[in-house]
């Protein structure tokens, strides 16, 4: 016991500021990794892997040779298995990391122009909700939606409530699918979105809602869904769905999210520019 205490004391004495920084960075990475897989299939799979790792030393100490052999071989091929099983989550994590300050943030800089577009959008959504007309609208942000746009019908038209309402009229060619908005343009309609594989989603929600959540899981787009059964307005952001919006509440939350993201990005860019300027001055 004394040896253990001495080892702990010596370790504490030898801790430097870089060791603390190293621990904080690793802790942050683990935290962000957990948040990415929270409430997904990967969370349950991770618990199973943790159980296997915990059983390995126990089976060795208790001389359960067959169990130890199976578990050790399972871990040997575990890395490849994890890559295959966690492919959607790994892709999601890499896309999340790839949203750097150099991404093209598709948010207008003019607040008045932004408000005009959002007003046209929420007016259309409110009118569609009144008639319980199903709708799925995605507002592109820093993650490009080129793949989604390419599988639909490209339009490149100015955002207007009349056009949006017309797109989702039942039995028209473009009503069954998602409409993509980039800045003040409707760039495509009738687009097919990836369905969410989250098993915790309410079973009462249909394909339209699962598609909206699915796109929000793989991008930072803002997805508005209007239920064709109840006319309920929902918003999917970062893999989470919130429901029961009215016109004013939806406009307020969209404006707040888009302006906050723009200001955060501008601040980040400003800080990086300052660092670059400082480095250049030091080199001179």
From TrEMBL:
Q: What is its EC number?
A: 2.7.7.85
Q: Which GO terms describe its molecular function?
A: adenylate cyclase activity; ATP binding; diadenylate cyclase activity
- Superkingdom assignment: Bacteria
Which leading EC class covers this enzyme? transferase
- Record keywords, A-Z: ATP-binding, Cell membrane, Membrane, Nucleotide-binding, Nucleotidyltransferase, Transferase, Transmembrane, Transmembrane helix
Task: Specify the DAC domain's residue ranges.
Answer: 87-247
Which reaction(s) are listed as its catalytic activity?
Answer: 2 ATP = 3',3'-c-di-AMP + 2 diphosphate
Q: Which Gene3D superfamilies does the record associate with it? A: DNA integrity scanning protein, DisA, N-terminal domain (3.40.1700.10)
User: Mind telling me which residue stretches traverse the membrane in this protein?
Assistant: 15-37, 44-62, 68-86
User: Record keywords: NADP included?
Assistant: no
In its keyword annotation, does this UniProt entry include Metal-binding? no
For the biological process aspect of GO, one term held by this record is: cAMP biosynthetic process
Matching entries from Pfam families are given as: CdaA_N, DAC
Function of the molecule: Catalyzes the condensation of 2 ATP molecules into cyclic di-AMP (c-di-AMP), a second messenger used to regulate differing processes in different bacteria.
Q: Which family does it belong to?
A: Belongs to the adenylate cyclase family. DacA/CdaA subfamily.
This protein's assembly is summarised as: Probably a homodimer.
Q: What is the official name of this protein in its record? A: Diadenylate cyclase
- This protein's gene is called dacA
């Amino acid at each position: 016991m004394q040896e253990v205490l001495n080892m702990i004391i010596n370790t504490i004495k030898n801790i430097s500021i870089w060791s603390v920084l190293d621990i904080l960075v690793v802790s942050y990475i683990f935290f962000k990794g957990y948040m990415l897989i929270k409430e997904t299939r990967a969370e349950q799979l991770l618990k199973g892997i943790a159980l296997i790792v915990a059983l390995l030393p126990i089976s060795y100490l208790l001389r359960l040779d067959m169990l130890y052999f199976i578990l050790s071989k399972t871990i040997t091929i575990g890395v490849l298995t994890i890559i295959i099983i966690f492919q959607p989550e790994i892709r999601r994590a890499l896309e999340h990391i790839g949203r750097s300050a150099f991404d093209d943030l598709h948010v207008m800089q003019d607040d008045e122009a932004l408000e005009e577009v959002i007003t046209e959008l929420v007016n259309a959504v409110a009118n569609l909700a009144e008639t319980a007309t199903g709708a799925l609208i995605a507002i592109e942000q820093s993650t490009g939606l080129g793949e989604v746009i390419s599988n639909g019908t490209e339009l490149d038209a100015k955002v207007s409530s009349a056009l949006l309402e017309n797109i989702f009229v039942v039995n028209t060619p473009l009503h069954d699918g998602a409409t993509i908005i980039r800045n003040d343009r409707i760039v495509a309609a009738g687009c097919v979105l990836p369905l969410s594989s989250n098993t915790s989603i309410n079973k009462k929600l249909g394909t339209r809602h699962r598609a909206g959540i699915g796109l929000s899981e793989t991008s930072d787009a803002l997805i508005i869904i209007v239920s064709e059964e109840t006319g309920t307005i929902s918003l999917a952001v970062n893999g989470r769905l919130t429901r029961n919006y009215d016109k004013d509440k939806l406009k307020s939350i969209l404006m707040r999210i888009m302006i906050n993201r723009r200001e955060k990005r501008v601040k980040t860019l400003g800080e990086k520019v300052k660092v670059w300027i400082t480095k250049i001055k030091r080199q001179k």
